[in-house]
Design brief:
Layout (H helix, E strand, L loop, with lengths): L6 E8 L16 H13 L1 E9 L1 H7 L1 H14 L13 E5 L8 E5 L2 H4 L1 H24 L5 H4 L5 H10 L6
Parallel strand pairs: 3-4
Antiparallel strand pairs: 1-2
Length: 168
Amino acid sequence: GSLFGDVLSCAIIMKEDSNIEGVNDSKKLTAKKRKELYNKILKDSLAVGIGRADAKTIDKLNIKMATHLSMVRAIENLRDSQGNLVVPDLVLIDAENIETTIFQHSIIKGDENCYSIACASIIAKVYRDSLCDKWATIYPGYGIEKHKGYGTKFHREALKAYGPSPMH
């Protein structure tokens, strides 16, 4: 997992007839392909919400609970194209259960087996990667723009050399 920055989740409601070619688990797509799909997905969505939990929250709660919090926040932030709040009747979640009063269905390997979860994973990944590019200018030397905060050899060596930033 990532050693740097926020955990980020996306909630999305896709148009019923949406069928964008190439949508798959974001981890199985190149950065270029994810960026190509990003705008197509947003254009084909009815509502999108982003939720985040920062490094302090991750340290306080643990990564799993912080991820759950970011998922709940994503659902709470669901908005249509006019900015109106949208409350879903059902949430489909990738192999997790979260604290919400909304009916939920957990799907194992959801980002591989469920179109809307795959769309949400792509939006979340591209959005977080763009944040990492910005954070890399604030915290140079860690190579965040290259590895997006993941624990690569370079990143671990930079942590040893510079110590952790406030976002680690």
